[in-house]
């Protein structure tokens, strides 16, 4: 009997096909061996370039499209989609848009605010933080986010440094307002999120919001002329001294808002934010990222380790934000059944230790940890898009072409970069710790700080490798390994990091030195086993014949310092 092949013989492949197949397989194995991250790097780089090309297209068209513009469009396109979920209450895109319109109308009618005026916002995590922020942005105001943990002297400094026309205070922070109200500058108009007030000359906002119109304010009030226009002030300790108001432009918000998307989040995701909104991680990456995606955000008043996974299950959370301490707190909770029973697929943040990273994955399942590096005021960002444990990100030739940076040698004794006999800085070798600096140019600008220009100038390094070049000094020591992964090493200057916050040692020393029995106070950070960052150590010299009054010292530091800045250890000489 004749078979099928007798009627339809199989075609004989050309002689070159087997050789080509072997060649392709060889190239594949060579790529895997020598360039194992090629495709991951390419996908990430294409995302970065796509987003950059979109912004460049808007620029060439003469259009300035901001995150606020995107939010307003989403409120029209998907009005009934939940934007915020807070304590079980759903706030749709339309709800948030209309309430922010009401707030804009109140200030438009009752305050002579001009486009570009600054308004300071002292509020905790709640929907009205976002309503006030968006409402003021619709008036073209620059909004200054105040850290509600900062106390008396430092808080007054923050308010005065950004020179606001108005201060808006949350109802749960009236005690803080009472502390600073007598010392506030007389030309600062104070508003509180309440219907009535016991403070003289303090305005109430809630009653006026209810009576205000939901109509949008004139478009020309919020239209931006340039992506480089200032829109926010976010306070940071930098590397020394009291908090400084970092100038945040529309461009920086757009870049921050792209973070969730770059890591693979979509409009279908539900993002859980427990970090404070006065930080750029929660406000720019979290809220901004939610708008960029058109997604939903679950906002928490304050992080709770015991309620965290219950909230994730209750609201079907798929993306969480973290700092290193948050992951450790979750791992320190008692082990329970069903800990992997959740829908979280992405965890985005920074500062998680290697051991905590591994334990988190073992206990809570296949969650992709997306570690990144960035400074609020900085012009460089790294993202760990491969999931390499311990790394804050990757770089390669092409990434460095668009976002130029270097790691340079640093003199720890002189507390300055090392320069050779020709006066130029020198790059470290791979595997060595070096100071991270990023080039300042038209594509990667540094906007500096509000107020004293000296603060901005101190963050810049001039003539680093050649005449006329300019670099931003991050104040961070990093290591780049031979696979081009980057690792955070330490911070330079008079700061240390504790509980996710930068602590300025000079500020703590000054507060302690105010005590009449202290001759000298030197504060520095010390490593604590099992904890991220460094805890505060105060080394004290007492005045002659004086004794240490621990009760008075405790009262002093808790009155004038945020809890994370209070020293945990004392050394008396």
From TrEMBL:
Gene Ontology MF terms in the entry: long-chain fatty acid transmembrane transporter activity; long-chain fatty acid-CoA ligase activity; nucleotide binding
Pfam family, any one: AMP-binding
AMP-dependent synthetase/ligase domain mapped to chain residues: 75-395
Xref: Gene3D superfamilies: N-terminal domain of ligase-like
EC number: 6.2.1.3
PROSITE patterns: AMP_BINDING
Main location: membrane
GO cellular component, one term: plasma membrane
UniProt protein name: long-chain-fatty-acid--CoA ligase
Subcellular localization, as worded in the UniProt entry: Cell membrane
Keywords: Cell membrane, Fatty acid metabolism, Ligase, Lipid metabolism, Lipid transport, Membrane, Nucleotide-binding, Transmembrane, Transmembrane helix, Transport
Keyword Ligase attributed: yes
Phylogenetic lineage: Eukaryota, Metazoa, Chordata, Craniata, Vertebrata
Gene that specifies this protein: Slc27a6_1
Catalytic activity: a long-chain fatty acid + ATP + CoA = a long-chain fatty acyl-CoA + AMP + diphosphate; tetracosanoate + ATP + CoA = tetracosanoyl-CoA + AMP + diphosphate; a very long-chain fatty acid + ATP + CoA = a very long-chain fatty acyl-CoA + AMP + diphosphate
Annotated transmembrane regions: none
Keyword Manganese: no
Family stated for the protein in its record: Belongs to the ATP-dependent AMP-binding enzyme family.
InterPro entries, A to Z: AMP-binding_CS, AMP-dep_synth/lig_dom, ANL_N_sf
Enzyme superclass (EC): ligase
Gene source species: Rhodinocichla rosea
Protein's membrane topology: Multi-pass membrane protein
GO biological process annotation, one example: long-chain fatty acid import into cell
């Amino acid at each position: 009997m004749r078979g099928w092949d007798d009627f339809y013989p199989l075609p004989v492949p050309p002689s070159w096909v087997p050789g080509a197949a072997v060649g392709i397989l060889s190239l594949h194995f060579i790529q895997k061996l020598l360039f194992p991250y090629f495709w991951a790097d390419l996908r990430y780089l294409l995302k970065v370039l796509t987003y950059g090309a979109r912004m460049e297209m808007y620029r060439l068209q003469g259009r300035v499209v901001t995150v606020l513009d995107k939010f307003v469009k989403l409120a029209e396109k998907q009005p009934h989609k939940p934007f915020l979920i807070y304590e079980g209450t759903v706030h749709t895109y339309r709800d948030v848009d209309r309430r922010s319109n009401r707030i804009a109308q109140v200030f438009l009618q009752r305050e002579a605010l001009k486009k570009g005026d600054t308004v300071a916002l002292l509020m905790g995590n709640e929907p009205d933080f976002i309503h006030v922020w968006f409402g003021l942005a619709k008036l073209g105001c620059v909004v200054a986010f105040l850290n509600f943990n900062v106390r008396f002297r430092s808080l007054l400094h923050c308010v005065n440094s950004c020179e606001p026309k108005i201060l808006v205070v949350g109802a749960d922070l009236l005690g803080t307002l009472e502390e600073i109200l007598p010392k506030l500058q007389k030309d600062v108009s104070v508003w509180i999120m309440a219907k009535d007030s016991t403070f003289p000359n303090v305005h109430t906002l809630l009653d006026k919001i209810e009576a205000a119109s939901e109509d949008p304010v004139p478009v020309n009030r919020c239209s931006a002329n340039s992506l480089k226009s200032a829109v926010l002030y976010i306070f940071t300790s930098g590397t020394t001294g009291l908090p400084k108001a970092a100038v945040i432009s529309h461009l920086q918000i757009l870049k921050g808002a792209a973070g969730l998307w770059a890591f693979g989040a979509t409009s279908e995701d539900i993002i859980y934010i427990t970090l404070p909104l006065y930080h750029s991680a929660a406000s720019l990456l979290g809220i901004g990222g939610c708008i960029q995606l058109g997604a939903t955000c679950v906002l928490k008043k304050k992080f709770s380790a015991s309620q965290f996974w219950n909230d994730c299950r209750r609201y079907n959370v798929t993306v969480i934000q973290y700092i290193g301490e948050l992951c450790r707190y979750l791992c320190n909770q008692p082990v329970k059944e069903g800990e992997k029973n959740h829908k979280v697929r992405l965890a985005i943040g920074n500062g998680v230790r290697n051991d905590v990273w591994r334990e988190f994955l073992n206990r809570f399942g296949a969650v992709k940890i997306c570690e990144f590096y960035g400074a609020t005021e900085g012009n460089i960002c790294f993202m760990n898009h491969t999931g390499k444990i311990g790394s804050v990100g990757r770089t390669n030739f092409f990434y460095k072409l668009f976002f130029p940076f270097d790691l340079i040698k640093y003199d720890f004794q002189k507390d300055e970069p090392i320069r050779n006999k020709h006066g130029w800085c020198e790059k470290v070798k791979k595997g060595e710790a070096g100071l991270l600096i990023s080039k300042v140019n038209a594509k990667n600008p540094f906007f500096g700080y509000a107020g004293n220009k000296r603060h901005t100038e101190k963050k810049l390094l001039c003539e680093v490798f050649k005449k006329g070049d300019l670099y931003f000094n991050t104040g961070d020591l990093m290591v780049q390994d031979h696979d081009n992964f980057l690792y955070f090493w330490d911070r330079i200057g008079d700061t240390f990091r504790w509980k996710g916050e930068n602590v300025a040692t000079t500020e703590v020393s000054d507060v302690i030195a105010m005590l009449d029995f202290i001759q000298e106070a030197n504060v520095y950070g010390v490593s604590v086993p099992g904890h991220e960052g460094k805890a505060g150590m105060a080394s004290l010299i007492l005045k002659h014949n004086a004794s240490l009054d621990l009760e008075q010292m405790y009262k002093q530091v808790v009155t004038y310092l945020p809890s994370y800045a209070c020293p945990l250890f004392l050394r008396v000489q």
